[in-house]
TrEMBL record:
The name this protein goes by in its record: Gustatory receptor
Superkingdom field: Eukaryota
Transmembrane segments: 33-57, 77-99, 140-161, 181-210, 249-266, 272-297
Organism: Folsomia candida (Springtail)
Claim: Acyltransferase is one of the keywords in the record: no
Keywords, in A-Z order: Membrane, Transmembrane, Transmembrane helix
């Protein structure tokens, strides 16, 4: 991604000497990022916020009435874009704040255990096919991000969804003549390239997390099937990793599931209640966003639940291989806990099992109906 001139290298960038993703706040290393972020703020963010503030000021009659020539569906699109932008900003902020304290150290610990497991697993048993599939997904995401700003501009500019269109109208200029059209397209596409990068980096980090979790379980499971002694030895090493991972992972998973649950219930409610209220050009986004939220949350829960199932199945298999229930290895395996991932439901953490997916869907349906009936 960094080989492209479209994308910057601030604050996260790939260090070719260390072969690591590094957090670095040196502006001099890549000043082009600051230029593109400045263009984003001047071309899209501040004009869009001004349009929204003026619209809500007129609606609530807070100040004198401003001239309002922005269509209602454009206002709705700006509200949705603003909410999405705020969520993206906080996700990236969490990544940055936790990088030096937790994320980079976790990467190093995982890499060490991964190397140890790889040394004793044959190539056909080390889960390389899992990484190959995820690399294909990551390449698709990055290749799509290269083109996304241009695709986004080609959709927004013809329908006058960019804030610069209304800025030019305020300046008594013709926004749709050839010069201003090219000007709007170039600035809009250029300003959104860094937003595409902010989307790509968290997605790639999520894919890395999936890769680590799935391959650790795959290699450990194959090793445990060959030898209880080797399986228990590496279980203890993985247990150290999961003990360190448990607290931050529990908070992250709880935040994702709770936030996704609230958004899905509200979007389902809005899909039913707002039919005929919003213009169809905006209304159709509500069910699609609800579907995307559901897919994301259910996939996160599914991966976490699969981790629990893998631990449970492997520990049960190792116990069955023991010669007797009074043997030393059986007693050690019986005392080995399932290291599955947890989620806060109330004040106590609970292991994420497959049943949570059913409970989640049932709760979404129940609270959506409750909102409608009240």
């Amino acid at each position: 991604m960094e080989k492209s001139t479209l994308f910057g290298k601030f604050p996260l960038h790939w260090d070719s000497a260390k072969y690591r993703l590094v957090l670095d706040f040196k502006f001099s290393r890549d000043y082009k990022v600051l230029i593109r972020i400045s263009i984003l703020l001047m071309v899209s963010f501040f004009p869009g916020i001004t349009i929204l503030l003026r619209y809500f000021s007129n609606k609530l009659q807070l100040f004198g009435h401003f001239e309002d020539h922005v269509p209602h569906d454009v206002i709705c699109a700006y509200v949705i874009a603003f909410v999405a932008f705020v969520i993206l900003f906080f996700i990236f902020l969490i990544v940055i704040l936790s990088w030096n304290k937790y994320t980079s150290a976790e990467m190093e610990r995982s890499f060490i255990v991964f190397q140890r497991l790889s040394k004793v697993c044959p190539r056909q048993e080390n889960g390389a096919h899992i990484t190959i599939r995820l690399i294909k997904v990551a390449k698709f995401v990055i290749q799509f991000d290269f083109k996304f700003s241009l695709i986004f501009a080609s959709v927004c500019i013809p329908f006058n969804l960019d804030p610069m269109y209304y800025v030019l109208l305020e300046m008594k200029l013709t926004p749709n003549n050839m010069t201003n059209l090219v000007f709007r397209t170039v600035l809009f596409a250029l300003s959104w390239t860094e937003v595409c990068r902010l989307i790509a980096i968290p997605i790639c980090l999520v894919l890395w997390t999936i890769n680590v979790a799935r391959r650790e379980m795959f290699m450990w499971g194959n090793m445990a099937r060959r030898s209880n002694l080797g399986g228990h030895f590496y279980y203890r090493q993985i247990a150290i990793l999961y003990t360190l991972r448990r607290r931050p992972t529990t908070f992250v998973l709880s935040f994702i599931v709770i936030t996704g649950f609230i958004y899905e219930v509200l979007l389902n409610y809005a899909t039913i209640v707002m039919f005929g209220v919003f213009p169809i050009s905006v209304y159709w986004t509500l069910p699609y966003i609800a579907i995307v939220v559901r897919i994301i949350v259910t996939q996160v829960v599914d991966i976490a639940a699969q981790t629990y199932e893998d631990f449970d199945a492997t520990l049960k298999f190792m116990r069955r291989k023991c010669f007797g229930k009074k043997s030393y290895m059986f007693r050690k395996l019986r005392g080995s806990q399932n290291l599955g991932l947890c989620i806060y439901l109330g004040t106590s953490p609970y292991l994420i099992k497959n049943s949570l997916k059913i409970d989640y869907r049932t709760s979404v349906l129940y609270y959506t109906v409750s909102l409608l009936t009240h």
